[in-house]
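Re-run requested by the PI after the first attempt was lost when the workstation crashed. Everything re-entered from the original request form. Ligand of interest: S-adenosylmethionine.
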Amino acid sequence: MTVHLVGAGPGDPELLTLKAARLLGTADVVVHDRLVSPEILAMAAPWAEFVDVGKDPNGRRTSQEQINEILIQRGRCHNTVVRLKGGDPFVFGRGGEEATALEGAGVPVEVVPGITSSIAGPAMAGIPVTHRGVSSAFTVVTAHEDPHKPDSLNWHALAELGTTLVVLMGARRAEKIRGRLLEAGMAGTTPVAIVTEATTARQRVRYLALDELGIEPVANPSVIVIGAVAGSPVLAPNVLSAATSQPHHASPLTTA
Ligand SMILES: C[S@@+](CC[C@H](N)C(=O)[O-])C[C@H]1O[C@@H](n2cnc3c(N)ncnc32)[C@H](O)[C@@H]1O
């Protein structure tokens, strides 16, 4: 009897870990998010019960408290419960809260790390988040903060780092991100790359400058990469396997 907090990776089923695939194939219950692809869900055992707790920004929401309750209840009744989350469960996935709730309720819990979109997204656009001589660090932030609380990010510190900044959940706040970073002194010419639906057949990559961020709408889900590495991709955007992808026509320094 264990609840496994499993990272489903960024979308491509081939980026699932072997451990995640094994657990999925044996799970009695799969509790999953909106961003987990149908191909990955199809890897579950035929007898598995699916519980969709996806938080659609425009529709039904399952509160975190309800999700914790579902996990505790299923965890007490079943041998193997997989809590499947996009990317890595502990990167803006609220996996920490779920682990704490399960532990508090005496339900055994295990984490299975996944490939996070914060690294895989840039990689699919040919962008290494660190690159010798260009950027020796990367910072991952969320632009999705409680609108009723003061901004907890220190945008001046982020702008001054001069290394790679990766923004998750920034699609609707692209203009705000541009404003905050420009106010904090970051140059408007700083390269930016936007990788949308990374690792899926619908992947798109857009390269621009910070000055232009948010002028055009940014689709969801996207990873926004800001910094020198975004201006000098080492590879053209990754073409996915023939079975699942559309070809990309962009050269690394132009718009796809
Ligand atoms: C709630 S956060 C979860 C992050 C996840 N735990 C991870 O490690 O990738 C959701 C955000 O992750 C990013 N994201 C997740 N999957 C993505 C993908 N396939 N392509 C682009 N961005 C993605 C987007 O910024 C999205 O708004």
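Saved to the shared folder this time. The chain has a mean pLDDT of 90.
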